[in-house]
Amino acid sequence: MVPLVVIRPQPGCNATVAAAAAAGLDVRSHPLFTIVPCSWQAPDPARFSALLAGSANVFRHGGRGLAALRHLPVYAVGETTAAAARAAGFTVAAVGSGGLQGVIDTQVPAGAHLLRLAGDERVALHLTPGLLMEERVVYASQPVPLPADLADLLRAPAIIAAHSADAVRHLTAQCVSHGIRRAPLRIAALGQRIAAAAGDGWGEVAVAAAPSDQALLALARQMCQDPGPKGR
Length: 232
Prior knowledge:
- Helices cover 30% and strands 24% of the residues.
- By secondary structure, it is an alpha/beta fold.
- It has two domains: 4-32 and 144-224, 3-Layer(aba) Sandwich (Rossmann fold); 35-141, 3-Layer(aba) Sandwich (Rossmann fold), CATH 3.40.50.10090.
- The strands form two sheets. The chain has a six-stranded mixed β-sheet.
- Helix 6 (165-177) packs parallel to helix 7 (192-198).
- The radius of gyration is 19 Å and the shape is elongated.
- The protein starts with a strand and ends in an 8-residue tail after the last helix.
- The mean pLDDT is 93.
């Protein structure tokens, strides 16, 4: 079986690795990013009706600024983010399953004024008529250099699970700087925007059927069982 390499930051990396191992995949943990808090100031909470959160990192790294916002209900992108919100003392109004745009389109009531707490890399959202939204960046993803053991691993066929556009761009740059051929490597991307960021040169770039770890690992399982056109 071709190995699956997970490069997302911790603690998400461990969660994906554990799920992949439970599914019987030959999975390797190699985070290429660390998450760090950003300096930010919470706006006047009276101006907002709810928070919009697309990552559990909002509540893990939001720091003291979260305290003033704790009475605002949270619209969360998924269950992991919702669980982190509850652990931080927030009430969750709704939980999505297909990305933040789906949350806005189907669960946020008309006329809401949202405060979006996010990372430095975030997806642009389209607001439905009547909705207002402001954003604050509360955490950032910082890339780390490609470690020697990962560089060695990537010189043979492998599948890389890509959870963000920044991750796949960083991986591409590291492959170029280390002289690693990308043709034997294939990308399992969480979404179409991530696949587009991967660019050309990989043996294959495939997109999960839904923006969830479950769908991504289902795709990775299919890919790992097949050496692929460039890996044979």
